[in-house]
Request: fold
Amino acid sequence: MPRFKLTIAYDGTAFHGWQKQHPPADRHPSPPIHVDGDPSFDTPQEGRVVLRTVQEVVEQAARKVCRERVVLLGASRTDAGVHAHGQVAAFTSNPCPERGEGWPEDRGTDRLVRALNGSLPTDVLIRDATIVHDDFNPIGDAIDKEYTYTIASGEQRPMWDRNFVYYTWHDLDHQRMNEAAANIVGEFDFASFAQISHGRSTTVRTIFGCSVELTERDGLFGEVHQPRIVIRVSGSGFLYNMVRIIAGTLFEVGRGKIKPAAVADILVACDRTRAGPTLPPEGLRLEWIKYAEQP
Reply:
């Protein structure tokens, strides 16, 4: 039974996040995918509908391609509106050639990628597929992951990448932001940078790197060159909304409301009210996830 590791990119704008959700019915249900003429294969429970999530969409595509009840496990539960370049997920196939079910190992991962992408909407892309060991866990085996948060600042409101950046008219000092970012590298109690209802037993986390850089995006359709401030954060794990709160705190540093050195004091305080706001989801992107044994 081969186990497949998928690297997935997606535009999170039209998704209710990564994780499957079956809330009370308050909108039209998504049409089920029928497998072998069985209309109950993927039908939601009565009175409940399936919100459009990345996990649901990719899992349904894998079930259609493999013609079996695939269960997809993802590494990071990104929120609604958050994007990904390197999300990781895995599923195990149970090939049965007699019934034409499953995806045998000898059929190849390149063909699997093509088949999945042919069944996916245009805002999701399988970038890569590899065969991994039977016990591979995308969540528990991860040792490092990186997010970026992108801000557009200045008088000109962004147009073509507006769903992928947070816009502010404030002029931001990216050098002050980068100076402040160095204060959160290391192992700390990040209670000040976590939503109060984070639901975790401990708020201690390790940040391997945090930096802020100024980049320029080439203008499109006659636009002038537009600067973008990119906040880059990597670590072993993150609390709910942690990166967006870090970005909000550095944002306040950039516009002069918080001194760079004060970020260290905010960490020690373990007080959410001391940190900056939670910035909106559209500027956040999951870049990559690393594992101890790269398959």
Q: What stands out?
A: Strands lie at 3-10, 73-74, 83-92, 124-132, 142-153, 166-168, 186-189, 204-217, 226-235, 284-291.
